[in-house]
Amino acid sequence: MIKNYIGEANFEDTGFSYTLSLISGKHKMVILYCLMEFGVVRFNELKQYLKNVSDKTLSGNLKELEADRLIIRKEYPQIPPKVEYSLSDRGRSLMVVLDQLCVWGENNRE
Question: What is the mean pLDDT of residues 46-54?
Answer without folding.
Answer: 90
